[in-house]
Structure formats: structure tokens, C-alpha cells
Amino acid sequence: MTSDLRFFKEQLYGNQPQRAGDPRSPFQRDRARIMHSAAFRRLQGKTQVMGAGEGDFHRTRLTHSIEVSQIGYGLLQVLQSKKEILPENDQKWLPERDLIEAACLAHDLGHPPFGHKGEQALHEAMLQHGGFEGNGQTLRIITKLEKYNERGKGLYPTRRLILGILKYPRSIKTFDLDAFSQTPPKSFHEDEADVVAWALDGFSPNDRRQFIASANGKQAHHTLDCSILELADDIAYGIHDIEDIVARGLATESAVRNAITVAFNELASKSLNGFNADLVANGLLADSFQRK
């Protein structure tokens, strides 16, 4: 992989002329364009667990993405401060704050309402036209569909932003869709093959092969930025979905306690630093201040 960090700041379709007096970095422009995009605003109408019109307390995809962004930056701060986790000579590879926040804000842009059920419905409807995959749609939105400067070129994202949201760098065309007629394989849409090739251009041929070969599944190789995003996403929806369910009274106390106990039993062999099922359940089921 290239060691030239400037390489990852290059913009898709060529660097755009910078406005006179604009002090922003390429990653700051990535973040700003995402936050002001129509696709980002549309997340307010997309469900997380409950419908967007069922109240004003629970998360939507928009508020979830904002929370993922904050957690992503928090993880970045931990990596910056703990040299035993990431040695000082490797710190240069850590993303800038604006970049990790941009990737986190963008990560759900392509996901339809109703979660994976919505994705499955769209995939079945589009099966004769190449299928549909939510992560692939996110890539399409920021590189082709969203409006910025010229039709068909999206937000002119940086290479590193694309690598940050590229969870599964394998084309949907390489799968046998007869075997994925109901649930799409984790992939990008074939129309964005040129974008992915450009994003991976700085990697060695062997790295690219391993990257692509691992793409469909939980054990997929990710860039450092994408790994931070994935963890932030898991933390956000894992905790906040539970909070929404408890706060809205959509599960009984016994159901919550049982689910948490089962989860902790599966983690029994791992260090949990003093956390246990009773501690978490008691906190969740207490008043709203204790829950927070």
C-alpha cells in the first residue's frame, strides 16, 4: 500500500478548484457536503427500530448517524491517546476527525426504510436489473447520485472517504443471484466497479485480492477507518435500540432481563471489566437518569 498520505486525499473525478479563501481540508469538505446533502436529510424519515411518526423520542436513521459520528470520534481519541494500542510511529495512519465523522455520517445513506426488510424487498424487485444492496447504494449516492457540482458525479468524495464506507469491496455481479434471491449478498453494485477500482488503486495486487475475497461476510477485511466506523455503529445501535425499546415500554422487564442474561452468558469467557447482566439490566430498567 502506498505510504503517501496525500494520495488518500485525492478526490474522485479529479480535485476541484478550491474557492479563494476557503481554508478547509478535503476531509472537511467531505463532511460538509454530506451534512448538507438531500440524502442525509432523508434519513430523518427512515426507521431505526420504530416508525418515524410514532413519537419524537426514539432514534431515526438520522439521529443514529449523528450518534455514530460522535462515538466514532470518541474511539479515534482513545486510539490517539493510548500509544500501547497503536504505536506512535503508526499514529500517522489514524484518520483526521473530519474524515471519521464524515464516514460515520454517511454510512447509512443508502439504507432504505424498514431496515433489512426494506432492503430485501428492493432487492427482490430489482433482481432482474442487478439487485439492490444498502451499502452499495451508499457508495452510489456519494459518488454518483447526490447533487453537488455536476450530474452523475455525486459529492466528489476523497479516496479515503470511499475506503472508509466500503464495507464489502466485491461486485454483486460476481455472485450467483439465484442463491441470493431473497437477501442480497454484501457487495457493491456493478455500475460502481470503476469507483472501487480507483479507491483501491493504492493497494498492492495481493492486498486487493485478499480485500475482495473476504468481502461477503462478517469476517471481511476493512480499512482502519471502516473498522472504527463499524465498531461505532455496533455500539450505537446495540445500546440505543435497547434504550428506545425500554423507554417506550415495548418489552417486559422479564424479557429484557432474560435477553441481557443470555447475551452475557455467551460472553462469559471474555473480560467484561466488572460489567454483568444484573448491573446492566438494573441500569436499563431504572429511571431515565440511571439508564443514561
Query: DSSP strand (E) fraction?
Result: under 5%
Summing up helix and strand content along with how strands pair, one would put the structural category as: mainly alpha
The CA-CA distance between the termini, in Å, is: 42 Å
Report the CATH topology name of the largest domain: Hypothetical protein af1432
Mean pLDDT: 88
Task: Give the helix tally.
Answer: 13
User: Which stretches of 5+ consecutive residues score pLDDT under 50?
Assistant: none
User: What CATH first level of the largest domain would be assigned?
Assistant: Mainly Alpha
Anisotropy-based shape: globular
Q: How many structural domains does the protein architecture include?
A: 2
How large, in whole angstroms, is the Cα Rg?
20 Å
- Please tell me the CATH architecture of the largest domain by its name: Orthogonal Bundle
| Sequence of secondary-structure elements | HHHHHHHHHHHHH
